[in-house]
Hints:
Shape: elongated
Distance between the termini: 44 Å
Oligomer: single chain
Number of domains: 1
Mean pLDDT: 85
CATH architecture: Beta Barrel
Amino acid sequence: MGRFDTDTIDDDAPTSSPETDSDMNVSQARRVIKRGWGNVEQTKQADSPFAQRLKVEEKPIIVKFLEDEPYTSYRQHWVERQGQKSFTCLSDMHPQGCPLCDAGHRPSARFAFNVALLTEDGDTTIKSYEVGPRVIDSLKNFHQDPRQGPLPKHYWAISRSGKGPTSQTNHQMVRDRDLEEEWNIAPLTDEALEQVKKQAYDASIVPIPNRKTLLTIAAEELDYEN
């Protein structure tokens, strides 16, 4: 996070009077510069050019969908190699196509939602909930269900059971009235919800790889000869 106004600090500068406008800056700063694990996540993602993915594990987490639909859908190659392993497929983006597809590597469909992750300590962070075809079908059914949908209507407890190819992502609808009693989490205020929506991702956050890079990876990892 950058310093206010300039990147230098004058130790001899006079302190602000409580009556000056700068007192409002201090007040705003105190809401940002604070302790807690939630603030760690907020600070990390503020400096990151990539979407911060929602990590789903066995222990349920509580999220609020911020929109009725995915903010982006795309295809992704996953290549087992050192360093970066995932690459956005170029087959529909580049006039010469995608080198990884040409090498016989099959991409997988990815769908990404903006969600607010809530914690018991009151912190809320924006996350990108990225899912595959099986989960997107389930979410579409939830969204269209008159009792549970649309997705942003309620909160959702998300968890994962099983391991590897047999793992399953589980979604449990949580009504506002049950959130605090059963999960010890306070519902988002209208103001807090609007603030987190201002941080929502869009399709521009998806990294588009250089075709030459993919050609190199195809040659090194998939024995592809152009």
